Amino acid sequence: MKSLSKLTLLLFIFVLACQSKSSNMSSEIYISVSYSDSLNLENLDGRLLLILADGEKEEPRFQVTYGLNAQPIFGKNVDQLQPNEKVVFSKEGFGFPYESLSEVKPGEYYVQAVLHVYETFNLSTGQTVKLPMDNGEGQKWNISPGNLYSKPVKIEITKNSLPKLHIVLDQVIPEIEQPEDTEWIKHIRMKSDLLSQFWGRDMYVGAHVLLPKGFNEHPEAKYPLMVFHGHFPSDFGGFRTTPPDQNLEPEYSERFGIDGYNIIQQEEAYNFYKRWNEPDFPRFLIIEIQHPTPYYDDSYAVNSASQGPYGDALTYELIPYIEKMFRGQGEGWARFLYGGSTGGWEALAVQVKYPEEYNGCFAACPDPIDFRAYCLNNLYEDENAYYVKSNHNPVEIPGHRDYLGNISASMKSINHLELVLGNKSRSGEQYDIWEATYSPQGEDGYPQRIWDKYTGEINHEVAEYWKENYDLRHILERDWDKLGEKLKGKIHIYCGDMDNYYLNNAVYLMEDFLESTTNPYYDGEVAYGDRAEHCWNGDQENPNHISRLRYNSMYVPKIMKRIMESAPKDADLTSWRYK
After folding, report:
1. What whole-number distance in Å separates Cα of residue 146 and Cα of residue 250?
2. Of 6, 32, 127, 346, which has the highest C-beta tally within 10 A?
3. Are residues 334 and 438 in the same domain?
4. Is 194 in the same domain as 211?
């Protein structure tokens, strides 16, 4: 082969460089987002989310998950955003499950953007923070009234190109219609002075109240109170005064593998209504409380450095208010706590934090109650939350399984999705609310991280704060000489031994301590469901998909037994036990 001349060689190199540059430019992903001036808004703060979904069964904003059906999502903070001001998503932005837009695999996608709007709070601690206020939806960014969103647009990503795309947010999520009072169910909303002082603005808590049969006919009756803890309830759940809808189309429950689960839910709700009216069924007030915060759909019902005094607000403001309005007994012997998952942790935590204000808790599948088993992490000894330590072969730690042990998500993936949805513990998701509840407040006013959200490196100083303030097993063991007599007979815990989030591991550790107690013995109950997944609540006779619909009635016999054994001699045990 003859040698190329120097000029020819230079020309050849130049052409290759241009082709390479052209190829890189054509493959670069570049999507910009702005909001329309027709909305008459300006100076918006918040988290801008860009979602790509490879199916059109529903809008992309409703397809975001950390599991096997995860869709690509990317997030950016915006401050004082103006109408028509463009925010660019390119390969440098952080996303999940692809960290970069440039990694999204070729295919057809439906693209949508959502602006989760933040408000400014001037806290009583002196800091100013920007957070999403709940707007009646239970702190869900994809349905929160006032959030902006775009209509989905179909695009195609090929190996070498993506059309430069501009998305306009021109839709606003409307207000949510609130439930109306009925003969049986009343809806309460009250301003909390304690929370309003902490947050620097008016803050409200509320409840849905189920009245007992004969409430109006027996004005002399004063009722015990059952407090159901859990996620934000839009209305009182599991109570229906009419038979199931004959025209209801059966829906398949992927979680339980059952067709027509929506019909089963209506049947169970109607059956509870019938039981509620039986002559021998005890007469109680049952409440499902609403206490969403700017961090989550639920405050976790305890006082917190970053969320404020929700424990005191619920125990000393809301509950006495409801008892006064609906003739509750208004004394600790007549108040009981129950719930599952988040509600299970709350039921136990509130009983421990306010031992004499309540007479028993029934905690099903509680969130981690011993931080040596914070799901699959030991916060006091592990170095990293995402990987099992190994010199040569670190393994990712699972985050979710089914009853056979099949893994569908890792700790890393769950937390990386949260990091996309919001930094500074603002995702509105599970690990961030634990952090917002348990962590000390940082100098910037936001919760201190228990671990680096990107790398998983654990902060043991923060873990020590968690231990002394919210590790329920540690608190009980540390303070049993003070708490034992006050809690004797009040602690009941239930969990499936194949809980999806490995919550049974912490229950084992709690049981080890409780069974070792003396002076006094705890005299309660810990039980497990064989191969039962999340939300198992102590029912050994029915499958989980049925028992989880019976929280409102299944603990009543246990509560009645507790009342008869522990009520003071002068307690009113008659006015509310009419037929």
Report:
1. 33
2. 346
3. no
4. yes
H helix or E strand, kind and range, residue 109: strand 107-122
Q: How many residues does the chain have?
A: 579
Q: How far is CA 255 from the centre of its chain?
A: 18
pLDDT, tens digit (0-9, with 9 covering 90-100), for 128-153: 999 999 999 999 999 999 999 999 99
Residue 392 lies in a domain: yes
Same domain, 513 and 540: yes
Tell me if 493 is assigned to some domain.
Answer: yes
Q: Token digits for 509?
A: 């550790």
* Inside any domain, residue 17: no
Q: What digits encode the pLDDT tens for the residues 418-453? A: 999 999 999 999 999 999 999 999 999 999 999 999
pLDDT digits (tens, 9 = 90+) for 205-246: 999 999 999 999 999 999 999 999 999 999 999 999 999 999
Asked whether residue 495 falls in the same domain as residue 364, the answer is: yes
| Residue 289: closest CA among 332, 226, 352, 331 | 226
CA 473, chain centre distance (Å): 22
Phi, psi angle pair for 548, to nearest 5°:
-65, -15
- Is pTM beyond 0.90? Reply is yes
What the block records as the tokens of 37 is 């001036």
Distance CA(130)–CA(47), nearest Å, equals: 10
Residue 155 lies in a domain: yes
Could you give the 3-state DSSP secondary structure of residue 387? strand
Question: Structure tokens of 119?
Answer: 């408000």
The residue with tokens 């902490």 is: 198
Q: Are 422 and 114 in contact (CB under 8 A)?
A: no
pLDDT score of 578 more than 80: yes
